[in-house]
Amino acid sequence: MPKKNGMIMASFSLVVAASLLVGGANVGSAASDLESTSDIASTNINLAAADIPAKFKPSVEWVWKNRMVKEGSTNRKNLIFDQIYAGKGTLNYVVRWQSSKNITLQQRKDMASMLSRQINNWNKQLKGYDGWPYNNITVKIVGWAVANPSQILNKQSNEIVYTDTITDDLSKTDPNIPAKLPVAPNALSRFEHFMDPNYSYPGGLDKRFDMYLWGTSNFQGGAGGDWGQRMPDDYILNTLNSDEIQITEHEMGHGFGLPDFYEEHERPPGGFPVPTIMWAGNSPKITEWDTWMLRYTWSQVKKDTSRFPNR
Ligand SMILES: [Zn+2]
Question: Where would one find the signal peptide in this protein (predicted)?
Answer without folding.
Answer: 1-30
